[in-house]
TrEMBL record:
SUPFAM superfamilies: Colipase-like (SSF57190). This is Colipase. It comes from the Eukaryota. Its main location: secreted. Residues 64-106 form the Colipase C-terminal domain. It is found in: Secreted. SMART domains: COLIPASE. GO terms for cellular component: extracellular region. InterPro entries: CLPS_chr (IPR047576), Colipase (IPR001981), Colipase_C (IPR017914), Colipase_CS (IPR017915), Colipase_N (IPR017913). The keyword Secreted applies.
Length: 112
């Protein structure tokens, strides 16, 4: 019983030491290659063109270009940080033609 407890405690200590390291598939840092935004710590997998490799990057801040959240999970313009809204073309045509970009705005400062 004591050996089992010691082995359990050692394995927990080892697991805890690895939990703060970067991931290979998830928990990716900015600049690392990604296939889906869910893999990134920042929750934005960004590509500059249709032929470029996607990399994790920060979400858009206030007054930066943005894209509405997408089911695809890879963006040409990242969605806004939490608390901001992306005032963009939300039409189906905008989504298909990849022209649904907008600007991140704080809804509390909106003049509507």
């Amino acid at each position: 019983m004591e050996r089992t407890l010691v082995l359990l405690l050692l394995s927990l200590a080892v697991a805890q030491s690895f939990s703060h390291q970067r991931g290979l598939i998830f928990n990716l840092d900015n600049g690392e290659l990604c296939l889906q935004s869910a893999q990134c710590k920042s929750n934005c997998c960004h590509r500059t063109s249709g032929l470029s490799l996607a990399r994790c990057t920060n979400k858009a801040i206030e007054f930066e270009e943005c894209s509405p959240k997408s089911l695809y999970g890879v963006y040409y313009k990242c969605p806004c940080e939490q608390g901001l809204t992306c005032e963009a073309d939300n039409s189906l045509v905008g989504s298909i033609t990849n022209t649904n970009y907008g600007i991140c705005q704080d809804p509390r400062n909106s003049s509507k």
